[in-house]
Write a structure and sequence with these properties.
There is one protein chain. The protein folds into two domains: 175 residues, 3-Layer(aba) Sandwich (Rossmann fold), CATH 3.40.50.150; 188 residues, 3-Layer(aba) Sandwich (Rossmann fold), CATH 3.40.50.150. Helices cover 28% and strands 26% of the residues. The strands form five sheets. A seven-stranded mixed sheet has the order 5-4-3-6-7-9-8, with helices on both faces. α4 packs parallel to α5, α7 runs parallel beside α8 and α9 packs parallel to α10. The two termini are 41 Å apart.
Length: 381
């Protein structure tokens, strides 16, 4: 089930990190459709080929002979890409891996767009890439039918040029855009900022900065709001991690509540890490200590180094619903916490995180709850 068959060969692909219990494929029908179109239509790939949003490296692995550039917001996605290139191509030689925060190529001859879940991220990235397109640039997007909406096509039309779609094949569709000379794109609206509400403790009224694609970029989500209303009151020098930090509002609130704390902001999204740093800098004095890291959770954090971990774990991986990410976050937290250190988690009540925490920590205390969310505290013994 892990072999992608294309016109250029068969490729064994996996996601990162690999989950023995959850064999989710590292590609789907949208990737297959795009690769088949490139082979059958004879698109010239000798120039600068850019694959935007290539989720697990399927596109650049299949096209590695053409020296493509991958632009991705996902640290995990790029680790998967490196692993897949190593497994199938002997390494990443000739392939350029960029993040959504890096400067894109100055000229793009073929732009391949894997439509992201976030329309805002697509908007921001098309704004960034459009100046590098020219009249002969081939622009092809791809996605599952459920991912491509009228608003998606309108973005391509407004930011690139005339746009049309293909027929659906295996519930996937292609998007074809023709670069127009000097379209009136307007300014990129991202990042966005908003003021926090006044009932969430030390962070009340503070400014939050959100780069495109960050979860709940236009308002405070209700789970985070609930956690902010019940953050632990702590004093003294300690090392606190905002794990899966998003826009960094939770870690920023912890720093505001305890000025002696040193913060670690971690997320697998480069856009999120940039947002967290901007939020922190907007609200803390210049001397406040913090580290910002795009990473695979707390992997690489020294064992027994953390005093407190704050976590609002995701339970989706693209279209798949899974608790695998939460389990790994909890395991990472236990390894990184010192004895007596605490993990505070907010989650939907129905997810049953208390059961998982008891298996991993041997304990889980309910701090607060409402009909939708619970806040749980686990202590490393």
């Amino acid at each position: 089930m892990n072999i992608l068959t294309t016109a250029t060969g068969d490729f064994t692909l996996t996601r990162f990190p690999e989950h023995p219990r959850e064999q989710l494929r590292a590609w789907d029908a949208a990737d297959e459709y795009l690769l088949r179109h490139l082979a059958e239509s004879g698109v010239e790939l000798s120039g600068t080929v850019v694959a935007l949003g290539d989720r697990w490296g399927a596109l650049v692995t299949a096209l590695a002979a053409h020296g493509p550039t991958q632009i991705s917001d996902s640290y995990l996605g790029q680790q998967a890409t490196l692993a897949n290139l190593g497994r199938n191509r002997g390494g990443a030689d000739g392939v350029t891996l960029l993040t959504t925060r890096d400067t894109p190529p100055a000229r793009i001859d073929v732009l391949l767009v894997r439509v992201p879940k976030s329309l805002a991220l697509l908007e921001d990235q098309l704004h960034r890439l459009a100046p590098a397109l020219h009249a002969d640039t081939v622009v092809v997007g791809t996605g599952m039918v459920t991912e491509i909406h009228t608003s998606t096509l309108q973005l391509f039309e407004r930011l690139i040029g005339p746009t049309k779609t293909s027929l659906a094949v295996k519930k996937a569709r292609l998007i074809f855009s023709t670069p127009a000379p000097g379209p009136a794109r307007g300014a990129d609206p991202w990042p966005l900022s908003y003021a926090l509400p006044g009932d969430i403790g030390v962070a009340s009224g503070r400014t939050v900065v959100n780069h495109a694609g960050v979860f709940c970029a236009e308002r405070l989500d209700i789970g985070t709001r609930f956690l902010l209303q019940h953050l632990p009151v702590r004093r003294g020098p300690e090392l606190v991690a905002d794990l899966g930090c998003g826009n960094g509002v939770v870690g920023t609130a912890a720093a505001l509540g305890n000025p002696e704390a040193e913060l670690l902001f971690v997320d697998e999204s480069h856009q999120a890490v940039a947002s967290a740093e901007a939020t922190f800098r907007a609200n803390l004095p210049a001397g406040a200590k913090a580290t910002f890291r795009a990473a695979d959770g707390l992997a690489g954090t020294p064992a027994g180094s953390l005093d407190l971990v704050l976590n609002n774990p995701p339970f989706h991986s693209h279209q798949a619903t899974t608790d695998a990410t939460a389990r790994r976050m909890f395991l990472d937290a236990r390894a990184a916490l010192r004895p007596g250190g605490e993990l505070w988690v907010v989650g939907n009540r129905h997810l049953g995180y208390h059961v998982t925490l008891r298996r991993i920590f041997g304990n889980a205390q309910l701090v607060a709850g409402n009909p939708k969310f619970v806040i749980l505290r686990a202590v490393k013994r």
